[in-house]
Amino acid sequence: MKPKILIVEDEPAIADTIQYALETDGFDAICLSSGAPVVDLLQKEAIALIILDIGLPDINGLELCKQIRKDHTLPIIFLTARADEIDRVVGLEIGGDDYVTKPFSPRELTARVKAVLRRTRTASPTSMGASVFQIDQSRRLIQYFGETLDLSRYEYRILKTFIRRPGHIYSRDKLMEMVWEEPEASMDRTVDAHIKNIRAKLKALQPEIEAIITHRGRGYALKEDL
Ligand code: CA
């Protein structure tokens, strides 16, 4: 089966060029000209990767990425026309996997798509046979050593965020921003409370393993070599 790539780009000429290049290279490509239908589409279609324009007519691509990241771990490559957006993509760790600046050659973009798919395929814990975690996105369940964890909605989102990038340190602010719908409504401490709960649930199954590591003054990370 061909990997299906979703192109979200409002300029038809660019979208067509990308679609043609991807299909020539053996991918299936779907185009959307606005951000609104993306989240729905992801529920219905098995998309391997998203190429996401930052300057969309209805929503900023970075904002859309945050929404996607609440439920999906698939790789995202940003398209940007502005140098000042690159800082945000790279610096804020919005959850994008790569970016390409306009104008770009279709060949360069398909090369990036292949590279990102290769990288995320090997790094993705959900597809690694040896991984101690298994994520079932459709049922919003996470298994730890083959046992299903009983997680609240936010615990699920936090743990999924960690699993996506083992070893990566997330600050409380970052977790809040990625996981909560209304970050400003919650207190810093809430993150700590959820982490404490997740730890207790993981420890209940594997008392010997310290899966979530506290980096003092910096945040939390999932242990890398679990
Ligand atoms: Ca645009």
Describe this structure in words.
With 226 residues, the chain is α/β, with parallel strands linked by helices. The protein has 8 helices and 10 strands. Helix 4 links the parallel strand 4 and strand 5. Helix 1 packs across helix 5 and helix 6 crosses helix 8. The longest helix has 18 residues. About 4% of the residues have low confidence. Calcium ion binds next to loops.
Portion in helices: 40-55%
Biggest sheet details: 5 strands, parallel
Overall geometric form: globular
Provide the list of bound ligands, each named once: calcium ion
Rounded to an integer in angstroms, the radius of gyration calculated over CA atoms is 18 Å
Number of helices: 8
What is the CA-CA span between the terminal residues? Answer: 31 Å
User: Care to count the β-strands?
Assistant: 10
Q: Averaged pLDDT, please? A: 86
A few lines on this structure:
By secondary structure, the protein is of the alpha/beta class.
